[in-house]
Amino acid sequence: MRPDDDIPIPDLGAELRALFDALPHDAPTDPRAADRLVVRLRHEGFFVIPSPSSLTLLRTGSARDLLFRTRWPLAIAAALLLAALSALGGWTAGRRGSLEEMLTRNDLTVGDRVLLLQRAGSAYVTAAQSYANATARTDTTAIEVASRVLLGAAHAVARNHLDAGIAEQLTSVLQQSATRSRATVWF
Amino acid sequence: MSQHRPAAAVSDETLVRRFLDGSEPAFRALHERHTPRLRMLVRRLLGRYQHELDDVVQETWIAASRGAHAYRGDAAFATWLAAIAVRIALKRLPQLRRDDGELSDDIPSPSDGGPATVIDLERAIAALPDHQRLVVVLHDVEGYTHDEIAEQLGIAVGTSKATLSRARHALRRALTEGVTNAT
Questions:
Q1: CB contacts, 8 Å: A25 with chain B
Q2: Range(s) for CATH 1.10.10.10 in chain B?
Q3: B167 touches chain A (CB under 8 A)
Q4: Are A150 and A174 in contact (CB under 8 A)?
Q5: Hey, which residues 97-126 in chain B have their CB within 8 Å of chain A?
Q6: Looking at domain B108-183, which of 1.10.10.10, 2.30.280.20, 3.40.50.1980, 1.10.8.80 is its CATH number?
Q7: pLDDT tens digits for A61-70?
Q8: What is the pTM of this model?
Q9: How is chain A split into domains, by residue range?
Q10: Which of B129, B142, B141, B138 is nearest to B169 (CA)?
Q11: Which of A12, A13, A38 is closest, CB to CB, to B24?
């Protein structure tokens, strides 16, 4: 029973109902209709058109495999692009935390600046040790550069009154051993 | 492996999925399975505009192919396909009426003599006005409810019922007069 009881609809009657029941539900089809449709749909890009080199694959593999293998150059290009972007991102992120980058920033807290001083000092010591290991002999140029850097650092500390006068004594000692030219300004 | 199974053993949903993956055999299997019924439905919906039959059936398959990604298997594929055919026929009929201008010469009419036959009924259905024919075909032949017809045709449920009432009167009159004239 269909839910159509509120508007009176004349019943079909047994004879008409029998005729309706006897109506066929299938019609013969044109065997070429599917071919025409396939051609039309292929023009719309529905079916994969294999290249001559992939005909063997078409015979042995699924359409999905074929699609994947014919698009591998595109996949490689996408992977390379992704790798390049990742490298750029990594380099940028790494550079953001470098000593040089940190020294140029003016948004650091006091704690960050203390850490930066420690890192700069460690870097100086490491650089001096590396230089000494590399030369393995007394190098006047290295002595001069090292003493000027230390002198510059001591001047900076003294000028900013960071250490209650200790740096001033250090400065006077270093001043004697350094040449008379102006100190290297590195900060 | 499963691709070599007979098409009849594979569900419509699976065939649609394979078709979307690019399988032409899957599409051909769907076409072979559903076109006979689709063709008969469209033939009845079009009435006297039989020359449009192949075109409407093809357009239905193309529209179904384009929208196949939206088919989720909630309804039977045949029902989903029929809904597309009805939409296309509904859109096409007013245009055909305008182009036609008047009734063509080969309007089917009930045969003279003897009890009404299935052929008489087909002719009587084809001779109904478009909106009555659509409702009769969908309700009395295809078994749609009035709610479904209303949704398909974009009309009120009451309109569907009233149209069916008029259509049944017209059918009975056409078939009875054919028989009465002969006796």
A1: 37, 40, 141
A2: 108-183
A3: no
A4: yes
A5: 115-118, 120-122
A6: 1.10.10.10
A7: 455 555 555 6
A8: 0.57
A9: 108-177
A10: B129
A11: A38
